[in-house]
Protein: Glycosyl transferase group 1
Amino acid sequence: MTKKVILGHPFGNANVRQALRAFTEERILQSFVTTLSAEHFHMLSLLPASFRREVKRRSFPGISVDRIKSRAGQELMRLAGARLGRSVPSLRRVTPSVDDVWKTLDLRLASYAAKESGPDLSVYAYEDGAFHTFSSPHAFQRVYELPIGYWRAMHHLLEEERELQPEWSATLKGLADGQEKLERKDLELQMADAIFVPSDFVLSTLPQKFARKGTVVPYGCPEAYSEEVAGVSRSSSSNEPLKVLFCGSLGQRKGLSYLFESVARLGSHVELTVVGSPVAPCRPLEAGLSKVKWISSLPHTELLALMRHHDVFVFPTLFEGRALVVLEALSQGLPVITTQNSGTTDVVLHGKTGYVIPIRSVEGIEKALEELARDRELLRYMSNEALKVARQTNWLSYRRKLLEAMRNSENSQVNKPIVM
Structure:
């Protein structure tokens, strides 16, 4: 097994935290290179309440403080620009972007990798944060995680969507990346010794020259809620409207226009709650939100609680990696209606824990919701099955598979994709 791992990520998403935990428990984590870390931030009382909450969220318990290499300035400026920019738009032009934060993180990660380089070092980097690190002349294993499908496949699909739904085109942010950034993505994949992806869907989008280095390591579900409590606030009678929930960034990549149309067709038989922030001004999005219950943001614990007060989760995404929000919904006992492109078809089992439908299928969403609204026994069955699957596909399973993938990737030529 690798003797030490340096991992770099600017934000510390759920999958990143679980990778850190795996490496820490295996006693191989050398350093975690990041931006904002509550462990190193000693001026919380001086910050506005919203900033304090964000800093506290960037806490990494279980990791020795001396192994966390944080530098918060640029990320704090970005957060300030994002918040204040709502009222002073000109601020957004002078504060750092997400891309800026990733580039700086990459340069810092390269520096730490150079200091620790050697045959016993693995550097674990993520899409958009590996180019400078992997370009280093120093010797170390280059492990790359691609959390979403390959960019060319995404562009092809989103360009189709722009033609089909032109009024939603402003929300298709995945088409806005410049050529330099896209070329860096390919170079990162090319320089990687091993590529880890969270789903078969992501692997299927990669060209063969990259896919042959690929290993599928599926993200896990959070701890499943107890069956007795999970169903307390759910609709029990077909005379009551079916409580439908969507959570995610509010753009057309998530298939929102198709969700709004299917809910409109069903009328008073369903009640839709949408949680998320718009990615861009968009008239049909605003019109759709005006007809449903809309919550712009929620702390994670409150989102999980909200899930337990709904009947079904709908996530008609066009293109994903492995939708963490789907895994969270299952863990709260919510059947899920999603697409084959969600990266979750191993846990959303059609007719058992939910429904897997084609992308862009208003009819598919409508039919599934109609069936659950009519048959509450089926709804209860699917809710219980969702909890069972969530218990089987947990984060412990992910951590074990990640460590196994790391062992398999050492000192070996990968000639074909490996599925863990």
Summary: The chain has two domains: 4-220+395-419, 227-392. Residues 4-220+395-419 form a domain with the Rossmann fold fold (CATH 3.40.50.2000). The longest helix spans residues 98-116. The mean pLDDT is 92.
